[in-house]
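Listing S7. Sequence submitted for prediction.
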Amino acid sequence: MNSITSIFTRSHSPEARARRRDASQATREVAANIRRRARSRGLDPLSLARTAGITRWRMFWLWTGVHVMITDMFRAQRALGMTVDDLFAGTRGASK
């Protein structure tokens, strides 16, 4: 396989699919933790975006869990006063 096509192909092994599934679930769980904390503080997504300094589209992605960017995740965490344990609660990495 040449190097160009190897970039666009991904492994379909059961282990690789399980890793992708677990990563997607962890992303959704982090987004849910941020939503839960924001709602308990009475913040809607746009208010949190302004407070955390995140653009509206990137806040939409973070809020829905579609695409969580690391910098946005930690900005929201800091704006909400969350600990790292609060942020990653419920993910597989938090239970270890």
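Caption to Listing S7: primary sequence and predicted structure tokens for the chain studied. The mean pLDDT is 88. The helical segments are 3-8, 14-40, 45-52, 56-64, 70-80, 84-87.
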